[in-house]
Design a protein that fits this description.
Elements lengths: L24 H9 L3 H10 L5 H9 L6 H17 L5 H10 L4 E4 L6 E4 L2 E4 L8 H12 L3 H10 L2 E7 L2 E10 L2 E9 L2
Antiparallel strand pairs: 1-2, 1-6, 2-3, 4-5, 5-6
Helix pairs in contact: 1-2, 3-6
Length: 189
């Protein structure tokens, strides 16, 4: 896969792509404490810092980029990052609790949908979920649990639970066209 510029090789010259991390006070504290790279990654995701790999996965789609194109894409990615970092899962879960919804459905290409009193209600004030959002939600819900990640990667589905501000949710993760799809059910006490 390539273009005329690279003679269909997929690249014209070798280019290094390195991931950097904005070190906030919270991240610095984790580093000093000797936290694992997974803990640091999860904290950065919770702080809405996108990873380089997630940005590139979203942008590249296996296209052939020469160095000028990559430089321009980097500039565009940084602009987008400032505009929208990721879907705010805390906001969605708070809305579920506030509106006394029984379920929330998160499907790529749609806005979040709440089930309130057996009726499905689209959350109009939120953005349409992108493939990038769906992968970030996965990282948010799994939080580095390698066992859960392994089960999902092998079976392409996962039933688990998640606790948010002392409220528990039953979480079902499945796969649609290689993109995670989520249903979270509020577990009432």
């Amino acid at each position: 896969m390539g273009c005329d510029y690279c003679n269909n090789t997929g690249f014209h010259s070798r280019i290094g792509i390195f991931e950097t991390l904005d070190v906030t006070d919270e991240i610095r504290e984790l580093i000093v404490r000797g936290a694992s790279s997974m803990e640091i990654r999860q904290k950065s995701i919770r702080n809405r810092i996108q990873t380089t790999s997630s940005r590139w996965n979203q942008k590249s789609y296996r296209r052939c980029y020469n160095s000028r194109r990559i430089k321009q894409k980097n500039i565009n990615v940084l602009k987008e990052r400032k505009e929208k970092l990721m879907v705010n899962m805390d906001e969605i879960l708070e809305l579920v609790v506030k509106k006394d919804a029984s379920d929330v459905h998160l499907i790529c290409g749609n806005k979040p949908v709440l089930r309130i009193a057996r009726e499905l209600t689209v959350v109009d004030e939120m953005e349409v979920l992108t493939p990038e959002d769906m992968n970030e939600i996965y990282d948010y819900l799994i939080r580095g649990n390698l066992d859960k990640d392994s089960v999902f990667r092998e079976t392409r589905k996962l039933d688990t639970s998640y606790e948010f501000k002392n409220v528990r949710f039953r979480v079902n993760i499945s796969n649609s066209f290689d993109i995670p799809v989520y249903t979270l059910r509020l577990i009432k006490k």
